[in-house]
Amino acid sequence: MPDNTRRARDEHFWKTFADRYSVEPGPINLENGYFGRMSRTVVEEYERNIELINRSNSVHVRQRFEQIESLEIRAQLARLIDVPVDTVALTRNASDGLQSLIRNYNRLQPGDQVLICDLEYDTVKGAMRWLARHRGVEVIEIDHAHPATFDSLLATYRDAFARYPKLKLMALTHVTHRTGLVMPVQAIAAAAKEYGIDVILDGAHALGQIEFNLDELGVSFAGFNLHKWIGAPLTLGFIYIDPERLADIDPDMGEMHFPVTDIRARTPYSTPNIPALLTLPLVFEEHLAMGGAAAKSTRLNYLRNRWVSAVRELPGIEIMTPDDPRLYCGITSMRFTRHTDQQAMVERLLSDYNLFTVVRSGAASGPCIRITPGLTTTAADMDLLARALSELR
């Protein structure tokens, strides 16, 4: 395979790749962080599977899907992230999985403390606050200084660990959905372990967008999406639990369809989107054929750096992620410092330049505009964005 760095700049290659996707005429989509596109071949496979299950109904599901295909798909998923098959269970999305992990974590006692930060996903924040109401624990909420550095992020967590000795559990987002900041998960998880604190990792935006080894990260519990950067249909995600820690997560609300020793008992049992699941083998094949996260991350980072480097030093523009390659990915946010209403500026980007972006709020540093190139985004799109930001600032 050609060097990923060289390929990332090869617009001809990425045009060929982009041609595998159907794109609706209209604004240039720079909000690819919401969910990803399926290739045309995946869409066609999905449609075939919808028709198959609709025709065969429960005959195929009972005889083939439940007995054979679902097991094969789960094994392929485990191979994709290089973990044992008994450590993963499919869910509808990362949020569902993270909620299940949080509400079923059974090592908390009244008076214990749990930790969240300002950059966590709102669903995760809500789930941790639910623990306070139903388990009698205290929620500790911290804010990260801006601009962030590797050392400042780690120091903020270490300070919290030392300040709150009753901490037992923390949420940690790998790629923050508000700003695109990539947390130094391995270092933070290692520090948490020193204090006896368990980490539940939100990997919703990480899988497929950045390279990581789950075993090396040092976390025992995690939730992921398959519909963002892997290219799967919507309604697909999964959880991971270290097999040595399975007993620390209770079966979900007394789930009995699987043995207590089976991770699948940690998720709600229901009829899944079977046609979408049957599409996963082709999704995995296409993801790996193009070079997997290594190729995707290099391309997305190249696109990100192209616009960021053009505007970072301009007065009136603030980039919300540092240029430390350990701390950024394709998702990056910015704001106009001379304009208080970032939503108004999003509307200007759309009306004046045909660029579709989104405002993210909730970070202690204030609202920002999230810009997420995708696998169909071109270098010319990034140059247009840089020009637009320069003119609007």
Commentary on this structure:
The chain is an alpha/beta fold and 393 residues long. It is built from 13 helices and 13 strands. It folds into two domains: 4-30 and 292-392, Aspartate Aminotransferase, domain 1, CATH 3.90.1150; 48-286, Type I PLP-dependent aspartate aminotransferase-like (Major domain) (Aspartate Aminotransferase, domain 2). Helix content is 43%, strand content 14%. The chain has a seven-stranded mixed beta sheet, sandwiched between helices. Helix 12 crosses helix 13. The longest helix has 24 residues, at 58-81. It is globular and about 60 Å long. The chain starts with a helix and ends with a helix. The mean pLDDT is 96.
Helix content: 40-55%
Specify Rg, calculated over alpha carbons: 21 Å
CATH architecture of the largest domain: 3-Layer(aba) Sandwich
Corresponding CATH superfamily of the largest domain? Type I PLP-dependent aspartate aminotransferase-like (Major domain)
CATH topology of the largest domain: Aspartate Aminotransferase, domain 2
Q: From N to C, what is the helix and strand string?
A: HHEHHEHEHEHEHEHEEHHEEHEEEH
Give a count of the beta strands, DSSP E runs of length 2 or more. 13
The termini sit apart by 41 Å
Shape: globular
Q: What oligomeric arrangement do these chains adopt?
A: single chain
Classify the beta-strand content into a percent band. 5-15%
Q: Which regions are unreliable across 5 or more consecutive residues at pLDDT < 50?
A: none
- The strands making up the biggest β-sheet line up spatially as 2-8-7-6-5-3-4
How many structural domains in the coordinates? 2
At the first level of CATH, what is the class of the largest domain? Alpha Beta
Query: Major β-sheet, in short?
Result: 7 strands, mixed
Q: Which class best fits the helix and strand makeup?
A: alpha/beta
* Average residue pLDDT: 96
